[in-house]
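Exercise: predict the fold of this chain.
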Amino acid sequence: MSYLETTKDVYKKAAETPDIGLCCTTNPIWELPGLRIPKIMQEMNYGCGSTVHPRDLSRNPKILYVGVGGGMELLQFAYFSREKGNIIGVDVVEEMLEASRKNFKEAEEQNPWFSSDFVSLRHGDAMNLPVENETIDVAAQNCLFNIFKDQDLKEAIAEMYRVLKPHGRLVMSDPTCEQEMNQTLREDERLRALCLSGSLPINQYVKALTDAGFGTIEIRARKPYRILDPAHYPTQELIYIESIEVAAIKDPMPEDGPCVFTGKAAIYYGDQPYFDDKKGHVLMPNQPLAVCDKTAAALAALNRSDIFISLSTFHYDGGGCC
């Protein structure tokens, strides 16, 4: 059985019998006016964060969500985009699609504004999306891409890039790990399916996105996720796994490389009314300006005694410049 077949088997069982402990997240469930999330959807929330960000969802966007789980994030997306077929949910596990259809009926009873036909559920896989080119404003996946091995990951990201409109955004949440994992862990198909042993370092994760052509990357959150310990896993050391929330934007690739925002800021504290680097960055006194890592490095290279560059906070929520 291949690792993808193992993954399908794990999530087929999770669709038939909800497994509350399959994934866990520190994110609170959205509390929005008129939005009620059925308990069964919460129990089937097989993700490690959230891909639902209101600032991505203005102007009634066309949304694609890959790996539907119990339908919770599809319902949350529908809250912001209430038109027939405006949200597409894709899953390779037919049992998970059927579970979502059933859960949507319960969601209709609890949410008078919601209709199941807001969501078009389609059978398909991430490496061959049943979606036309450049038709999607916001694409999303939660705790799926970390399962894929190198070539499959490249294909999955390329497919998301293909279906997005220019300047569209791919919003993701995945486990990451900065420590080396031994080969036994890496090749354990079940641990990979459980979103553990496929976790990549953040730099590798970001590179996979920029290699596909995404010109802007935003790291929006970085949170504790899991511990792999020697008593329960094939490892001789504690391995700490985090989850990150990332947006990859289909902007043109700048000539000097992608703009990657990891939560750095520049602060000017000199005596002049402002500092202008003549490259599009104007710093006002003691007003932090969010900057991409590339700009942060260029400003640091000026070796000025009146500009402070913060470390990465791994929390970027827009408003910066590159």
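Check your answer against the key: The CA atoms of residues 2 and 261 lie 36 Å apart.
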